[in-house]
């Protein structure tokens, strides 16, 4: 099942099960979704449940939050999370903080979803990763699916969750196919929020990743296996709450950690994981934590520059080897 | 009531405006699940499929009628179809002036002496309602004075008054039903007073004690009460406007006999959210009443520096929203206008914009000293001679419903309540430690449970560092 179909089927099933769920965003209706995620939903549920909006992120985000205050369950789609910055006041001040500031009187069962992070050749204003931005805010939950199973299970869990959820998809993953079991296809299937998944077990080094980088980490693990390094790959799934227990347990087993993310390095997800591991498993670390992140520059457009600005499988392999004290130069080979 | 509404809805076309005689062009189906085509009669221009959202929708059907006049039909060669409908061509190059020349007139019922202006349209108020409105206006005035003083004495950290805007607050609240959902800015506590929020409840919020419904989470004056249908006040300006449209959309889906009423000041209309909310409310045909309290000042920004339009009322037309300008210091005018606006919003499922002209007599808040940017005699003039409370009192007294003794009885009683409420609120315990960590999420996450545990352990080990009067 492709990730696109996984998301579509999750939306379909949740909208069918609960009449309060509705979808709102630019191009979600007539156009079948900018990335075709909401294909067929307008025909099935009608214009009351699938709303095409004018180009005003601040507007429809605020409206969605208002609807959620009153008990509806909106799913707000951002064409990409870059545009969510135009609505970020409503996400943080109106959604994330409301339950706390109103002392439980105003809950906000809303989901903000859309593609996040780098795509291919779309430049700086379309490639920013917002995982660490939203994950720093208490009151929000932040999810990042990788496979079709993740996409289905996490989106269903997000829609059912009474708290505001930021759901970070990835444009390049939409078309990828993953095997799914019968359990995943069941309409009650949900993936618990706050639990990471160990995609591949290993004993020499832990590699954490989320979204597209999970695929890269798995490829890196294959390469490392041939060189005698057994890597454990953790698919974070949930950025906030971060599954610190799984990460720390893994590091206590392997004693080495490489964090991988596409976003900018400073104050990123890897920084938080590193801090958590240093606080709780300091004695277990046999090497400094290696952070692999995107280059600290606005994403360039030219294909060769873009490739250098985003982590590649080789970068992960090299970092894992450094963590295992195999001498490899720090800088990427040209 | 129907007469009032019909008389005051003026359309741009010259034909008689009666709601029952709206012509729905043939070919528009009522069935909202099938797309239908706008009846364009041009050639070559792409037809747009427009989806009818709700059966109650009339507004989008009326668009073509509103924008055409008899002249257009004469000369078809001079008109052409554009996305949105027929537009007449003219050979003269004419710019629409930036102003219409004459300011939009202001609806008023009572003059400054509290006498009904002859020929006024208004809804007659009963003695009971009028006395209640007046008493609550006085209570609001007194509450503002006493709480402001409390801040000056350092007993609460912050306060802001609604001085000068008592009529907007109370008269609008009186014209609504208890089911109508309110999204305030922050200068509308009178609505809560009208709906039965007690002075003690106000004080509890300002002092942030354990009886505060907000559990001590918010600054003073950020009241919120679900049972009174009053959405918790939020500091960023104008964010409540698109939220109001969202709630109105929810009411529309539920087909409730209620609307949403949201307030903002003149300054708030500069926010992007104002534009988004008005535009969206018109497109989604949401039952929401936008009330703009144009009180002349946004902290130190005078309206001449805030916008260059003729106030806020003219903006309604830019979004296709019906609007009215009303004297915000006139209880009867505000009451009648809001009542009519509410009727329209619900029965026609459309947004309505009301601009209430008034003056902010007080400083913006306790953090402001407005004498630094405006003349003192301007403030004194509005406080003494254009005072909405005095004006309404004259009308109520003239009807024989009020007297000097009733006035002193009311003021004594309210003063006692106020002083007692403050005393009690000040002495009531603060919220317990547990309330630091609750409500961040629906279910408390493990990291917060751990932090609370660590905090309690620290307090246990170092009790001298923890304030003794704060409950654990």
Automatic annotation (TrEMBL), chain A:
Cellular component annotations (GO), alphabetically ordered: mitochondrial matrix
Mitochondrion listed as a keyword: yes
GO biological process, alphabetically ordered: pyruvate decarboxylation to acetyl-CoA
SMART domains listed in its UniProt record: Transket_pyr (SM00861)
Co-factor requirement: thiamine diphosphate
Residue stretches making up the Transketolase-like pyrimidine-binding domain: 1-176
EC assignment: 1.2.4.1
Keywords: Metal-binding, Mitochondrion, Oxidoreductase, Potassium, Pyruvate, Thiamine pyrophosphate, Transit peptide
Reaction(s) catalysed by this chain's protein: N(6)-[(R)-lipoyl]-L-lysyl-[protein] + pyruvate + H(+) = N(6)-[(R)-S(8)-acetyldihydrolipoyl]-L-lysyl-[protein] + CO2
Coiled-coil region list: none
One GO MF term: metal ion binding
Protein localization: Mitochondrion matrix
InterPro entries named in the record: PDHB_mito-type, THDP-binding, Transketo_C/PFOR_II, Transketolase-like_Pyr-bd, Transketolase_C
The keyword Metal-binding is annotated on this UniProt entry: yes
Quaternary structure annotation from Swiss-Prot or TrEMBL: Tetramer of 2 alpha and 2 beta subunits.
Role of this protein: The pyruvate dehydrogenase complex catalyzes the overall conversion of pyruvate to acetyl-CoA and CO(2). It contains multiple copies of three enzymatic components: pyruvate dehydrogenase (E1), dihydrolipoamide acetyltransferase (E2) and lipoamide dehydrogenase (E3).
Protein name as annotated: Pyruvate dehydrogenase E1 component subunit beta
Source species of the chain: Salix koriyanagi
Lineage: Eukaryota, Viridiplantae, Streptophyta, Embryophyta, Tracheophyta
UniProtKB/TrEMBL annotation, chain B:
Residue stretches making up the Dehydrogenase E1 component domain: 135-432
Enzyme class of the recorded protein, top EC level: oxidoreductase
Biological process terms in GO annotation: branched-chain amino acid catabolic process
The protein's required cofactors: thiamine diphosphate
SUPFAM superfamilies (alphabetical): Thiamin diphosphate-binding fold (THDP-binding) (SSF52518)
Keyword annotations from UniProtKB, A to Z: Metal-binding, Mitochondrion, Oxidoreductase, Potassium, Transit peptide
Compartment(s) of residence: Mitochondrion matrix
UniProt KW Metal-binding keyword: yes
Catalytic activity of the protein: N(6)-[(R)-lipoyl]-L-lysyl-[protein] + 3-methyl-2-oxobutanoate + H(+) = N(6)-[(R)-S(8)-2-methylpropanoyldihydrolipoyl]-L-lysyl-[protein] + CO2
CDD domains recorded: TPP_E1_PDC_ADC_BCADC
One Gene Ontology molecular-function label: branched-chain 2-oxo acid dehydrogenase activity
Subunit structure and binding partners: Heterotetramer of alpha and beta chains.
PANTHER family: 2-OXOISOVALERATE DEHYDROGENASE SUBUNIT ALPHA, MITOCHONDRIAL
Similarity comment: Belongs to the BCKDHA family.
Protein name according to UniProt: 3-methyl-2-oxobutanoate dehydrogenase (2-methylpropanoyl-transferring)
Biological classification of the source: Eukaryota, Viridiplantae, Streptophyta, Embryophyta, Tracheophyta
